[in-house]
Amino acid sequence: MSQSHHDESRRRFLRAGLLGVAAAPLGAALVSRQAQAQDDMPQLTEDDPAAQALSYVHDAAEAGGARTEGANCANCQLFTDRDGAEWGPCSAFPGKLVNRNGWCSAWVEAS
Ligand code: SF4
């Protein structure tokens, strides 16, 4: 390997390392902002018209007969929070948090 080829490889390696170091805080800031936005979201109430339209309940055990046995928000494909928080976002109710033990008629089994 020639000296100039070695220098070029070294430069590329250092550049990639610097980009990684520069991008890390940006990624952390985006995750932090997303968590902050989620913290600011109100919880969906059962008397919300959108909740009533989809028969949403905070406790899946209180759902009517249409519910698949064992179905709840935590195992629904539309529940986007998988980190174990009690309340998380659901794409059926944009801007609101649903209870992970809840259920509604839009439930789709998570794959
Ligand atoms: S769509 Fe899924 S996650 Fe959202 S409220 Fe209904 S059951 Fe829960």
Strand content: 5-15%
Could you say which structural class the secondary elements and strand pairing correspond to?
mainly alpha
Query: Tell me, what's the shape?
Result: elongated
- Largest sheet, described in full? 2 strands, antiparallel
Q: Overall pLDDT, averaged?
A: 83
Gap from first CA to last CA: 50 Å
Low-pLDDT windows of residues: none
Bound molecules: iron/sulfur cluster
Named CATH topology of the largest domain? High-Potential Iron-Sulfur Protein, Chain A
Q: Could you state the order of secondary-structure elements as H and E? A: HHEE
The CATH superfamily of the largest domain bears the name High potential iron-sulphur protein
CATH hierarchy class name of the largest domain: Few Secondary Structures
Give the strand line-up of the largest sheet. 1-2
Helicity level: 25-40%
Number of strands: 2
- Which radius of gyration do the C-alpha atoms yield? 22 Å
Provide a count of the helices: 2
> What is the CATH architecture assignment of the largest domain?
Irregular
SSE diagram, text form:
Blueprint: H1 3-40, H2 49-53, E1 87-89, E2 97-99
Antiparallel strand pairs: 1-2
Bound molecules: iron/sulfur cluster (SF4).
Iron/sulfur cluster binds at residues 56, 73, 76, 78-79, 90, 92, 98, 102-104, 106-107.
